[in-house]
Write a structure and sequence with these properties.
The complex is a heterotrimer. By secondary structure, chain A is mainly α. Chain A is built from seven helices and no strands. In chain A, helix 2 crosses helix 3. The longest helix of chain A is centred in the C-terminal third of the chain and has 26 residues. Chain A starts with 6 loop residues before the first helix and ends in a 12-residue tail after the last helix. Chain B is α/β, with parallel strands linked by helices. Chain B is 40% helix and 19% strand. In chain B, the strands form two sheets. A five-stranded mixed sheet of chain B has the order 5-4-3-6-7. In chain B, strands 1-2 form a two-stranded antiparallel sheet. The chains are: A mainly alpha, B alpha/beta, C alpha+beta. Chains B and C meet through helix 1 of B and helix 11, helix 12 and helix 13 of C.
């Protein structure tokens, strides 16, 4: 999942019909310091290409993406930290360029949503299980359903393993 | 209906309403400018050869509302708005400055020569760095600049009479009154 | 002529579908047998008519009839026959026709195989199918007519996108649609049950094979798509959390949850409302995906025409189908009564956990996919939700899910013995820890996620095998008796084991390829050697070659390790002329232990070429695992007890009592 998004191609994949070109490898200047180059690449992988929609600038051969990659390299070689480099782009193009949305007021529900959904679901499941688990035992003991009766038969069946499952 | 059972249909209703709105009102390909109500970034550029004294940040604070149009000779859509800009110039409605984006000097000069020049001043952004400072991501784009050189709005794509009337004219009036 | 016939039979299909969606419902309400029986006949006529329309369009493509606009836009007389045929569904209009055809095919299948279904249920299911058919046929006829003529006819067509001229991609949409549309059957069963106000174990039995089939096709469809992305795009990536991918992943997640919850309905007569809701949601997500991909509200949509009429039509259809069914659910579901006792520590308790986690994942993917639209609509702010978000939210939910996957099947129905299960699984836990420790030692340290992934792989693999061994009492008695037990074990139980092992293999592939991938990026000159992942790659230069409808730069690499003779890799950079575009043809040497992956790009004008070389350990196991999952589903589907229509509602007791417990897809 390190590669960027090639949305148009994928659109064609899952819903065929697009025109585009793919050229995955291109020549360009790299930073001499491999550590800095690696950082520049990592930052670029998280910046969304503006003209190719769902793709990072690292993976795009669009002109603007090349320029932006170069800018990221420049900033990194100037000694700016990752956040500072991203901020440079956000000031110009907005939050939209970040593939990893920042945690802030506008993305509050985006980031908290999964936890909220899980807790609500867990609460519903808990209530359901508690309600079901507390049914008076007598009721069940007195009236075995056909289903349960059959299971009972299976339980005493020699073919049944120790977990009460017949095999 | 108890909440437990009506929650799914209510959730879907919310999604449907937003989708309906999005279908008619939102354009996912348009990324609005971050620079609105901020001063135009600093820059200073040489003119397209033969077309004026060049363009810099200070030139945009003119005391009246102006337009800064990003154009290029290789840009097909620019031809679509060009006649309208000539018309604006003729009627003297608003001054337009031209930011020539990632072009070759000769090609830009030829283009202006062939189609005529609607711009008060021009500046050549050969490497596209000024464009990036402005948050340009395609050509044409047109910035509405306030009297004191702040960015009021950005129009993405060719400017037509309709767009001018809806988005630019009110800003001109506001400044005029 | 052929276009007019196609148009005519399509209208005929629409008229039939209209009747099919009304008469049987009325018949079922009035217990009018002839009206109910009409459903099956209508399903047959509708299928025949759409088959006819599809055949007409295919004839148009095969004979390169350029008086049909759709053929002009998507075909070319010089195209190979295979791609002329796959071109039929390689476009918006044709893909919708394929969708409708599959819908009718499933309807016919219900009519044919559902002989033992009660008349009322069958009539209602077919009526709902008919209703969905009406929607799609109207959509085709009013907004996306594939038979539109063009006058005068051009001499030749515009050609098909070269990226689509690929055997993998030719068959990817049909599988995906089989999955999407298969879920419509489950949906129709759910609506019919809501109308009848009755859900019982027999209902769950009838629904399961359809869910299994749809789930299996979706698995294959998604796997084919990601495999294609892997070998064709040249980035070595295979999953991008793109909205279009999410649109196919969400129905799959919901279908997976549905498979598991339906077992609880079948065995315990419980979770009925929830299962009905899941059936509605699974199909709704398929429809929502269609809307997102084709309406233009999402960024990926450049793909499909920006014709707002289409978006409006699909959205109205969505509101009618999804909104209507959820409203029906809200009204009718409260009247349904659930079954008896339900202990948290039990098989059904584990399946509730499974559903909780899967549903949360589904909701999270939906949230991430729609959030940019919501934020834009409410505040005008633009935000991107990319892979980092999905990975950050997916993993914390998927990890406990996988951990529970080994656990759940050990628990007995009704009352599980936690201590017993833990002692059973001690061995699996030991193996998982030992395996992770071994990896740590072998790789001299590894990222925590890599160790966790490898540990989970071992845990799930060993846990699944142990559970299967437990079932047949392997090594606990004479081998002959284990053999007998294995034969007698229901195929659905084998299927569960196989499918779970498939998941383990996918985890292996993902973890290993993400954690230990090595790459080389840069310019290489002929004769230069680089070492990537223990292999030496020698670049032997590049040449220009001419293909049937393209020119290409083809590079030659020799990859070898030690004294090995090595293998040659020939990546290409192709330039098509009609339509003009460039494609990257990666050269891949797939092996069980790793894939060698080479891409060639721009020339630097001094004899060097930009290249990209990857060594991706175990990545093939992602697709092997997906296929194993599909095989598990197929095995489960072949279970005698799940044969269509086998159980009869009149004899409910035997249908339940004969059921062994470990059924799962």
């Amino acid at each position: 999942m390190k590669s960027g998004l090639r949305s148009l191609i994928l659109a064609l994949l899952f819903a065929p019909m697009v025109l585009l070109s793919t050229s995955a490898v291109f020549i360009e200047e790299r930073l001499d310091d491999p550590e800095m180059e690696a950082r520049a690449r990592e930052i670029s992988a998280g910046i969304r290409c503006l003209v190719c929609q769902n793709q990072s600038i690292l993976d795009s051969n669009a002109d603007l993406a090349k320029d932006l990659r170069q800018i990221v390299r420049e900033r990194v070689s100037l000694g700016e930290d990752d956040d500072k480099v991203r901020e440079f782009l956000v000031i110009r193009y907005g939050d939209w360029v970040l593939l990893d949305p920042q945690f802030k007021l506008s993305t509050l529900f985006l980031w908290l949503g999964p936890a909220v959904i899980f807790i609500m679901g867990a609460f519903a499941a808990f209530m359901f299980l508690r309600g079901r688990n507390r049914q008076p035992d007598m009721e069940v003991a007195n009236e075995l359903t056909a289903d349960e009766e059959a299971e009972l038969k299976d339980l005493i069946n020699p073919e049944t393993d120790r977990f009460g499952r017949n095999s | 209906m108890r909440l437990r059972f009506s929650a799914p249909v209510l959730t879907f209703a919310a999604i449907a309403v937003v989708m309906w709105y999005a279908l008619f009102n939102l354009n996912p390909a348009e990324i609005p400018s971050e620079l609105v109500s901020k001063p135009a970034p600093e820059f200073s550029l040489d003119p397209v050869p033969g077309y004026g004294p060049g363009l810099a940040q200070a030139d945009l604070a003119t005391g009246k509302v102006t337009l800064l149009n990003v154009f290029a000779s290789w840009c097909v859509a620019c031809l679509a708005e060009h006649p309208f800009f000539m018309e604006l110039k003729k009627q003297n409605l608003v001054e337009i400055y031209g930011l020539n984006y990632k072009d070759k000097p000769n090609a830009a000069a030829q283009w202006l020569n062939r189609h005529r020049n609607p711009y008060e001043r021009t500046g050549m952004d050969l490497k596209g760095r000024v464009g990036i400072d402005f948050g340009v991501y395609g050509v044409p784009e047109t910035f509405v600049i306030s009297a004191d050189g702040k960015i009021l709005d950005k129009i993405i794509g060719p400017v037509s009479k309709d767009i001018f009337d809806i988005r630019i004219r009110p800003l001109l009036k506001e400044a005029g009154s | 002529m052929v276009a007019e016939i196609g148009q005519f039979v399509l209208i005929l299909a629409l008229v039939t579908a209209c009747f099919q969606s009304v008469l049987p419902l009325v018949g079922a309400a009035r217990s009018n047998r002839p009206m109910m029986r009409f459903a099956s006949n209508a399903a047959f006529v509708q299928f025949a008519a759409i088959t006819g329309a599809f055949a007409c369009l295919t004839v148009g493509y095969v004979t390169s009839d350029f008086s049909i606009l759709n053929v002009v836009n998507n075909s070319h007389s010089l195209k190979p026959m295979l791609y002329k045929i796959s071109g039929v569904w390689g476009n918006h209009e044709g893909s919708l026709l394929l969708w409708s055809w599959i819908l009718a095919l499933f309807g016919l299948a219900v009519a044919l195989f559902g002989r033992n279904l009660p008349d009322g249920l069958k009539a209602r299911v077919l009526a709902i199918q008919g209703l969905i058919g009406v929607g799609f046929l109207m959509f085709i006829l009013f907004t996306s007519n594939p038979f539109e003529r063009v006058n005068p006819a051009p001499l030749d067509g515009n050609g098909l996108n070269p990226l689509l001229q690929d055997p993998g991609l030719a068959f990817h949409p049909p599988f995906l649609y089989l999955g999407y549309v298969g879920l419509s059957i489950t949906f129709s069963f759910a609506i019919a049950a809501l109308i009848e106000g009755r859900v019982d174990p027999a209902w769950a039995r009838w629904v399961r094979p359809w869910t299994l089939a749809a789930w299996g096709f979706l698995t294959i469809g998604i796997a084919l798509g990601s495999w294609w992305a892997y070998y064709e795009l040249g980035w070595g990536g295979w999953w991008f959390w793109d909205p279009v991918e999410n649109a196919s992943f969400m129905p799959w997640l919901a279908a997976t949850a549905l498979l598991h919850s339906a077992i609880v309905v079948e065995k315990r007569d419980a979770l009925k409302n929830w299962t009905i809701l899941l059936a509605i949601i699974a199909f709704s997500l398929s429809l929502l995906g269609t809307f997102l991909v084709r309406s233009g509200v999402l960024n990926s949509v450049h793909a499909f025409a920006s014709d707002p009429a289409r978006g409006v039509f699909i959205l109205m259809f969505l509101i009618f189908v999804i909104g209507g069914s959820l409203l029906l659910y809200g009204i009718r579901a409260p009247m349904m009564k659930g079954g008896g006792l339900f202990a948290p520590i039990s098989r059904e308790g584990a399946l509730v956990l499974n559903n909780l986690l899967l549903s949360t994942i589904t909701a999270t993917v939906l949230l991430g996919t729609l959030y940019p639209i919501f934020l834009d609509a409410f505040t005008g702010a633009k935000v991107s939700v990319g892979p980092p978000y999905f990975e950050a939210t997916f993993l914390p939910l998927a990890i406990p899910l996988v951990a529970a996957m080994a656990f759940g099947p050990f628990l007995a129905w009704k009352r599980g013995d936690l201590a017993g299960v833990i002692s059973r699984l001690k061995f699996a836990l030991l193996v998982a820890l030992a395996f992770a420790g071994f990896i740590w030692w072998w790789q001299t340290g590894a990222p925590i996620m890599a160790l966790l992934g490898m540990g989970l792989f071992a845990w799930l693999l060993v846990g699944s095998v142990l559970e299967w061994m437990e079932r047949i009492k392997l090594f606990r008695g004479p081998l002959a008796s284990s053999w007998k037990r294995m034969i007698q074990l229901p195929r659905s139980a084998h299927g569960m084991t196989v499918a779970h092992i498939g998941v383990a293999l996918v985890i292996l592939g993902i973890t290993a390829s993400e954690s230990w991938q090595s790459e080389h990026l840069g310019v290489m000159r002929p004769g230069e050697i680089v070492t990537v992942g223990g292999y030496d790659f020698r670049f032997d230069g590049a040449e220009t070659i001419t293909g049937p409808n393209y020119d290409a730069v083809r590079g030659t690499f020799l990859a070898y390790t030690g004294g090995n003779k090595g293998v040659y890799l020939y990546p290409e950079q192709r330039r098509y002329t009609d339509p003009p575009m460039e494609t990257t043809e990666a050269a891949i040497r797939p092996m069980l232990s790793a894939d060698l992956y080479a891409v060639i790009g721009e020339a630097d004008g001094k004899g060097g070429y930009a290249v990209r070389i990857y060594h991706k350990p175990f990545i093939s196991w992602i697709w092997i695992g997906a296929f194993v999952m599909f095989a598990g589903g197929a095995l489960s589907l072949s279970d005698r007890r799940l044969r269509l229509g086998a159980p009869e509602r009149a004899k409910q007791e035997p249908a339940v009592s004969s059921a062994p417990s470990g059924v799962k897809g």
